[in-house]
Every structure is written in C-alpha cells, then in structure tokens.
Design a protein that fits this description.
Length: 591
C-alpha cells in the first residue's frame, strides 16, 4: 500500500491542555494517553469541546493533492476524535421521533446527551478509538443522535462482550432504530397492520442476529460487514419466525438468491382488475408463497428471504416503458451488489429507488453502486471528511479564508469525494465568491464526475444557474439541453427531471404558448424513452395545468401526443393511468 505523504505542519505550536482536561502542558504532536482519555471532559463537556476546538483550529494545516495535512496525522486525528465526542455529548437531548432540525432551541435547563448516558459506558467508548472512529464515520446529520446513543448503550449494557465483538452490527441497529418505522414501509401497496411487525428492543434484535450468526445459520459471517452494509440487513422489524420459515423453506445459495423473486406466482388477475394492494389477509411469507402476488409482493418476499440468510437486501421500485415495477437487490459478494433481480431489461427502468433505512430517505441503485466502490474506506476519504468539518468550524468562527483553504484541502486530498466538492461550492457561496470563481469550480466538479451521471447533472444544472446569474441565458439553456440530451437513452429519468423543470418554470410564469412548444419538443426528444417518468412528471402535471387554465383543447392534445409517443401496453398500469388522465382533461369532465 502506498504510504500517505503528510504536508509540513506547524509543529512548533505548543498549547496548554490543562484547561481542557486537567493535564499538564502538552501539544497536539503526540496522541492522547489512556489517562488523557479518562480525564477528558472532567471540567464539563461543553468546556472541553470549546477549549480543545480553539487548540485544533490554531494547529490545523491543510493538505495537498492526495496528501493530507493535519487530518492525516495520527496524533491530531486522535485529539480531533476526542473533540467529536465532547461535541456530541454536549448537544441537547433530542426527543424520539424528531429530526435534528425539529428539535427545540437549546436552553440552560435542557438535558444533554451526556446526561442520559452512564458515565462508565461513555468512558469505555472514549477509550476505544476504533469504535469512536466507526461511530462518527457512520453517523448522519439526519440521525437522532440521542436515540442512537441510547440504543448503543442498551446493547452495550445487555452484553458488553458481544458489543465489542459485533460493533458494526450494534451501530447498524442503533442508526436504523433511532426513529419510528415509516408508515409506508415496506411499500405503499400493503396495509402495515397486516405485516407481522414486532416491537423488540434493539438489545433483543442484537441478540437475535448475533445468535443466528454464532449458530452458523447464515450464508456469511456478518462480522465481516460494515455498519453501512448491515443496515440493509437489520432494517426489517418483522417476527423472527418469518426469517426462520424462510431459512427452512427456501434453500437457495448466495448466488441463487435472485430465484427467490420468481418463486412467487405472478397474479395476473390482480393486475387486470387493478387490484394493486394486498387484500389476502396477513402479509406473511408463507401466505405470499401460497397465494402469489404482483411485483411488489415478489420483491418483498425475496428481500426477506435474503435477510433471513444474512444478506443485505433492498426493495426497489421504478418507472419503465409501461409504468411502475418493483424488484430487489442484494449483496451477492462482500462489497459487490446485484441490483437487477426481477428487473425487466426490455422495460428500460432507468433508475431503481429504494429507502436508506438509516434515514428512511430515497437512495437510487446508481447511488448505491457509487457507494459500493468503497473509496469511503480509505484514509484519504477520512482526512477529506475531517477537512470538511474544519471548513465548517472556520466558517462559524468567521475565518472565511481558512474555511476556503480547508474546503480546497478536502477536494485535493480526495477528489472522488462529492461531499468535498459540495462543501467547496457551499463555502464559495457563503463567502460571496465571484461568479467566475464559482463557475470555474463547478466546471471542475462536473469534469471530475463525468462517469457518474447523477453528480454530473447536479453540477451541470448548478453551472446553468450561475450562468443565468451572470446574465448568460444562452449558455444556461445550452447547458440544460446538453445535460438532457446526454442522458435521454441510458438515464432518461435525469433527462425527464431536467425537462420537467424547464416546463414547470414556463407554466409558473403562465407562458402557456411557449410551454406547449417546449412540451412538443420534449415529446419528440424523450417520448419514446421516458416511459412512466415522462408521463407522471411531465404529461400529467402539464395537462392538468392546461385544464386548470381553461385550455381544455390543448390539455386533450397534450395527452393525445403522449399516447402516440409512449404507446403504453393495453391494460398495463401506464395505459390505465393515461386513460384516467384523458377522462380528467376531457371537455366532458368540466372544470
């Protein structure tokens, strides 16, 4: 492995940490000792955080091209990890069921995260640098940090030895079960009360998964997996009896797991009768197996079968030529996902969308493939992420020049890190950098991610926005149309999103003549490949907008043009929805 080159640091800076944790005068060139860790925070976590932050900001030095600065130095990273603990423990307690932005403003009498934890547990965690590093690499800004810490403590106190053996599993459970299960889990076409969901504690769930793994009931040793992989294993809070049934009745090897999808007989009568929701009683695996189902049920069944054998799985849905479909993906090999199980190639499903169980927000199959490249496991990525942290700290303290240098360092140290580019974009905006500087940075970002269409489109559209701010509307239009053209075949969903934005702007401005001209261009460009995305994101809202504006004739024409271009399969979901739209915009329907 190539050794990391560390940029020259200001090693002469010696600072007193006596005020921070009651220690004798030290500097950041040597790592904290076990005694340092035990004493850290003895004067209070907010004071420890603020005083150590001052020292870290003073000592920070940026890095260069794939060459970390301070954030690549072992001793500095260890002190920074202590600061992260102090910062986390100083934050106000966050009620269960709320997001960070929903929490009340801090007050003097509000409890902190430290107040709800056993000090002995906190000291044990702080002493374990590997665990701390894993925790802060896993935590998301959207996590309920208070509940994550409570979950971890519950697991730790139930079985400290197993906690140390299965730290990644404990973390995965902690970040998945830090908020209530969404009402729409596992999908919108089943009533949640029909699903055998259990209210086990996180400690009980942890004991279950460690038990089946120790009993060698799984297809792999889940201790090999990381927390950001295991969250796709432990995210189904169903009765363990369901998993036991699957292990007993569905005997598939890891490579054979895609067959689980087609094991469920497809119920065409439900499709023809437009009965898209499950009405067959309890939504249990044996019931689905015996009664059959449609694609959503096939995908759910396959996901649960995979999880029962220890395989992280995802339920995907997407739009194709004939409308919506569901399929599943699973971890076929460690660090290698197969995401097309049950996905029909001839339907041109440009993108599959799943839920990230850590935040219960959408994640696409393209994003997952990008994450699976595991560049996030490298020291360069970790250093880049810490550079981002320093950029934010410098901004908060009014040191804009140093904030920009830290953001530059994040990009230079790990150019593959989109978070670093996004931070630099944000810093340039917040510090009111000139439009030419912002434009140059966005061009570099777009070039860096040429092979990743989602990211490239984001930067192309940001470039178009900056061009408009510069008064260069022609360039802005050209950038948007270029992005739309580049993706119309392989990623029609991106092209449709761009086109929908252009059309929506014209509709909002009530420029209906120009909007209809733009719509006809989009029909010609995207009608054949856009499928369900084109219908639901462009045709339907535009036709209804025309109808709402009293232009029934053009509303009917818009749907007619779409039917000719999309040519939905008779009786299919898209055909049914298009017929309903035709009826809705018809002159006979009234206003």
């Amino acid at each position: 492995m190539k050794a990391l080159r560390i940029s020259p640091l200001i090693l002469g800076i010696t600072l007193s940490l006596a005020a921070v944790c009651g220690l004798s005068a030290q500097d950041l060139r040597r790592p904290p000792t076990p005694a340092d860790r035990q004493q850290f925070g003895s004067t209070g976590w907010p004071a420890a955080r603020d005083q150590l932050q001052t020292a870290l900001l003073a000592a920070y030095a940026p890095g260069g091209s794939q060459r970390p600065g301070s954030t690549g130095v072992t001793a500095f990273k260890s002190w920074l990890l202590l600061w992260k603990w102090a910062d986390l423990l100083s934050k106000p307690e966050q009620p269960f069921g709320t997001k960070p932005q929903e929490s009340a403003s801090p007050s003097a009498d509000m409890r902190t995260n430290a107040d709800i934890l056993d000090p002995a547990v906190v000291r044990a965690w702080i002493a374990d640098e590997a665990f701390g590093t894993m925790l802060f690499a896993t935590l998301s800004p959207d996590d309920n940090a208070t509940q994550v810490l409570k979950n971890l403590q519950e697991i730790y106190q139930a079985n400290a030895a197993k906690f140390r053996e299965y730290q990644a599993l404990a973390l995965a459970l902690a970040v998945v079960y830090d908020e209530p299960l969404p009402r729409y889990w596992p999908h919108h076409q089943v009533t949640q009360s029909l699903i055998p969901i259990t209210n086990q504690t996180v400690a009980e769930r942890f004991a279950y998964w460690t038990g089946v793994n120790d009993g060698k009931d799984l297809l792999l040793d889940i201790r090999r997996l990381k927390a950001d992989q295991l969250k796709f294993l432990v995210d189904a809070p169903i009765d363990p009896a369901e998993f036991a049934w699957a292990r007993k009745r569905v005997r598939l090897s890891r490579s054979e797991m895609p067959k689980a999808f087609s094991m469920i007989r497809y119920d065409r009568d439900r499709l023809m009768n437009q009965q898209y929701s499950w009405t067959e009683g309890p939504y249990k695996l044996d019931e689905i197996s015996s009664k059959g189902g449609i694609c959503v049920d096939q995908a759910y069944f396959a996901c649960m079968v995979g999880k029962a054998r220890g395989l992280p799985t995802l339920y995907f849905s997407g739009q194709g030529v004939d409308g919506g479909h569901a399929w599943f993906g699973y971890m076929k090999l460690d660090d290698k996902w197969e995401l097309d199980c049950g996905r029909y190639e001839n339907q041109n499903y440009a993108t599959g969308e799943a839920l990230d169980p850590q935040t219960w927000t959408p994640i696409s199959d393209h994003e997952l493939q990008f994450l699976a490249k595991r560049f996030r496991d490298t020291p360069l990525y970790a250093a880049s992420q810490d550079d981002i942290l320093f950029a934010e700290l410098f901004l908060a303290s009014g040191q804009n020049d140093r904030a920009l240098r830290a953001a530059d360092s994040a990009v230079s140290v790990c150019p593959e890190n989109p978070d670093a580019w996004n931070e630099k974009i944000a810093v340039l905006e917040k510090t009111q950098a000139s439009l030419p500087v912002r434009r140059t940075n966005l061009e570099a970002a777009s070039k860096q991610f040429t092979n990743y269409r989602d990211l490239r489109v984001d930067y192309q559209l940001a470039l178009a926005k900056v061009a408009r701010e510069q008064g260069d509307a022609a360039t802005a239009d050209a950038l948007e149309r270029q992005a739309q053209y580049q993706n119309k075949n392989k990623r029609s969903d991106l092209s449709v999103s761009i086109a929908a934005g252009r059309l929506s702007t014209l509709v909002e401005q009530k420029q209906f003549d120009e909007a209809f001209k733009e719509y006809k261009k989009q029909i010609t460009s995207l009608g054949k490949t856009g499928g369900g995305n084109f219908f639901y994101d462009i045709v339907e809202p535009f036709a209804m907008a025309l109808k709402g504006a009293g232009d029934t004739a053009r509303a009917e024409s818009a749907v007619s043009l779409a039917r000719k271009a999309l040519r939905p399969e008779t009786g299919g979901i898209l055909d049914v929805d298009m017929t309903q739209l035709e009826n809705a915009v018809s002159a006979k329907a009234g206003n």
